[in-house]
Amino acid sequence: MNRLPPWFAQQIPDQAVLGRIDEAGGARVRTVCREARCPNTARCLKNKQLTFLILGPVCTRHCLFCAVQKAYPAQAADPQESGRIAALVKRWDLRYVVVTSVTRDDLPDGGSGLFCGVVDAIRGLGGDRKIELLVPDFQGKVRRVEEVVAAGPDVFGHNIETVARLYPDVRPEADYSRSLEILKAAKSFDPGIITKSSIMLGLGENEYDVYSAMEHLRRASVDILTLGQYLAPSDKHYAVREFIAPERFARYGDIARQLGFRAVLSGPLVRSSFRAEELYNSILCSI
Questions:
Q1: Is residue 4 part of a domain?
Q2: Total domains present in the chain
Q3: What strand order describes the sheet that includes 263-266?
Q4: pTM of the model as a whole
């Protein structure tokens, strides 16, 4: 499973993309694009679409699919990070901002305070910017979800990442039911907030697993679903079990829409924040 199918051909980063990567690094702002080795980096950064990564470069969990560094305990959270992100949002005139984090089980609030701080800092810039947050599970502490929702993001995201059956192997420190409860909690605190989740495919799941996961997300009232192909960051990570053909991704996408998701993106190169603004706008246009 080391050789990629032809549909994974990617753009080569040009000088504009490399310049933005350097500019973010110079501003001491991290992005998932770089830290998680996203395959869409060139395409997204060329259009000033990116996902900011807060709470440091080190995750306290050991999910076997992820390229981010892992250690426990991690470094202290940086309260100045929100201001640096807001400054870059202003400099690049970003109208849709996606923010995520590593998981920080070592912090009393799991990092919820910094998520709120980033929202406040971006709102302080003025203008009609939209903010999408992709949060960890906060160890199931729903009061942290309440804090984040109260900060006023436009989209509340939390990824289940894989199907229930594979959690013990792929996400040993996470809990499938707990992740569903986090998404349910966000809706309970603000029924009008748009919620979002993502599933990686090719980890060994079968079609029944995928259908079940989509049904569980709909029962949690999730609005937006993305499905993409898992790619192992190295031979030390969880191995790719299957490359899912684009036709099967299309079928999964059709089923997701039939189940009632308000916006769906399904394809080999899809990641949780890929074309995020487009998905958000598609919901607005349907209201």
A1: no
A2: 1
A3: 30-31, 51-54, 96-101, 130-134, 155-157, 194-201, 224-229, 263-266
A4: 0.92
